Each structure stands twice: as structure tokens, then as C-alpha cells.
Amino acid sequence: MRRRVLSLQSVVLRLVLVHLAPAAMALLVGASGALAQSGTPAPQEQQGKAAPDSKSADAIKENERKAAEFVEAQQALNGPGGNPECVWLGRRVVRLMWLDDLDTAFRHLDLYDRFGCPGGHVQASFRCLTRFGSQIDDKVPRSLNDRIHACWINPGTQPQTAAAPSPAPSSSPTTAGSAAPAAGAAPAQAAPAK
């Protein structure tokens, strides 16, 4: 009887070794490969705790700046135009329209409308952005985004260069009511001088 039990054990042992050994080897090889790729995590964790990664610090600053812009928009705009989702989608629509990606802009505009955001605000912001087109420099990293945000906050903003070339007033002070006749008189005076 003992002999049968021993022979049965040896048969079972052989079956286990034949069928499970390749699977066990594959598991060991896979685990050793994973350990070799991961390296030693302790020094990297210590470096991360000692000095924060510059990319993560930049990402934190960028997120803080975005949050501040949303708060600024919410304080400056009454109604749904100041809601964060309207600000985010609306500025994206204006940016995409500026970059001539109209298909994507219209898809974003559909979402913008779905959130109940004011469509007229997108139009006014884009109109404002077109007024400042000459001041947007592709070489300045945030020139376009800053101008879009400024136009979103105050769509009625006028470029400063547009106010400078206005004609100089005459030496005598004029009132608003007499400004039109004075302008009409100036061409008449210029004609006899020829």
C-alpha cells in the first residue's frame, strides 16, 4: 500500500511539474522583468519630496492662474456669461474662430449654447479681438490667450492706437452741438486756400 501511495504521489508530482512548471517560469520571468523596469523607487521618492519638479510647479501656477481668471470673469460679468463653463467654452470658441478652425468652433459653440451661455457675448468678444489683431504677436507666448481673456471680460475695449489718430481740435473750445458745423466748416475753409 505504501508503494502505491508513493507511486501515486510521484505521478501527481510529475504532472504538476510538467503542466505547471512552464506557467510558473513565465510568471517568475514576468515578475523579474517588472522589477527590473521599476528600478529602485526610494531615491526617486526622496528627490521628489526634497525639490518639487519644475514641470509640476509650472502646472500648479498655471492652474492657479486659470482659477483666478475664472474668478475674475465671474466678478466682472453678471449672469451666465461669467459662469466658469461659459467662460471656458466661450474663450475656446473665440480662439478657434481666430485660428480659422471653424468646424471645431461651431461644435464648441453648440456646447456653449447647450449650457445656456449668452451667444451674443461670443460675437462681441470676437469683434473685440479683431480690433486688437495687430497687437497679437505669435512670438509672445500668451499674447492671444491674454487678449481673448481681456476681450471676454470687457468686449467693449478699444485699442489705444485707435484713439491717437483722431484730428486735433480747433484752438477755440467747442461743444458737442457745435462740433458738426465746425467739421463742416473746415473743408470749406480748405477749398479757398487752394
Write the layout of secondary structure elements.
Blueprint: H1 2-38, H2 41-50, H3 54-76, H4 84-98, H5 102-114, H6 119-131, H7 143-153, H8 160-163, H9 179-193
Helix pairs in contact: 4-5, 4-6, 4-7, 6-7
The overall average pLDDT, rounded, is 74
Principal-axis shape equals rod-shaped
The succession of helices and strands, N to C, reads: HHHHHHHHH
Uncertain runs are 173-194
Number of helices: 9
* Amount of beta strand: under 5%
Based on secondary structure, the structural category is mainly alpha
- Taking all Cα atoms into account, the compactness measure Rg is 36 Å
- Largest beta-sheet characterization: none
Task: Characterize the structure shown.
With 194 residues, this protein is an all-alpha fold. The protein has helices at residues 2-38, 41-50, 54-76, 84-98, 102-114, 119-131, 143-153, 160-163, 179-193. Helix 4 packs across helix 6 (119-131) and helix 4 crosses helix 7. The longest helix has 37 residues, at 2-38. The protein starts with a helix and ends with a helix. The model is unreliable at 173-194 (pLDDT under 50).
Question: Which key phrases capture this entry?
Answer:
single chain, 194 residues, 9 helices, 0% strand, disordered C terminus
Quick structural overview:
The protein has nine helices and no strands. It has helices at residues 2-38, 41-50, 54-76, 84-98, 102-114, 119-131, 143-153, 160-163, 179-193.
